[in-house]
Amino acid sequence: MYDKIWKGHEIADLGDGFSLLHADRHLLHDGSGPVLARLRASSRPLAQPNLCFATLDHVVSTAPGRPATSESRSRTIASLREGVAEAGIRLFDVGRSGQGIVRVIGPELEPSRKDSDPIQVDRQRCAPNP
To answer: What does the pLDDT look like over 10-64, one tens digit per residue?
Structure first.
């Protein structure tokens, strides 16, 4: 099954075990703001922002009213909001329908339809082993 999905999304075999893959959906979390800023600064727009969706989940308070409890959290939230607005990415923002933990809401909402294979990059899944 893994090989079938991989081959169905492979755009190019780059050699040495590397491939360029097409992502049906890309789910972004609040840590993605700096990445969007770097893409913008390097004049590399997203090819298909309509396939990307974002939500605030790592730095959002669970307290009623959900205040940003620190300056760094406020900057992180602002960075994502600015990045998705400029890139044309749909944001499931705080207090809006659909907002939640990205790996939980992804399968529950429209962005991850039955006929797609969404990709969600999360620092816990990308950290190299020590």
So the answer is: 999 999 989 988 877 888 888 889 999 999 999 998 888 998 889 888 777 766 6
Enter the pTM of the model.
0.71
Q: How many CB atoms lie within 10 A of CB 7?
A: 10
Residue 121, token pair as written in the block = 């990059």
Tell whether 56 is covered by a domain.
Answer: yes
> Token pair for residue 27?
């789910």
Task: Name the packing angle between helices 71-87 and 33-41 (round to 10°).
Answer: 50
User: Would you say residue 72 lies in a domain?
Assistant: yes
> What's the domain range around 95?
23-126
- The total number of structural domains that make up the chain: 1
Give the number of other CB atoms < 10 A from CB of residue 9: 15
Helix (H) or strand (E) segment spanning residue 8: helix 2-9
Q: What is the CATH number of the domain that holds 53?
A: 3.30.499.10
Reported residue count of the chain is 130
Pairing of strands 18-21, 52-55: unpaired
Residue 16: inside a domain, yes or no?
A: no
> What type of residue sits at position 109?
L
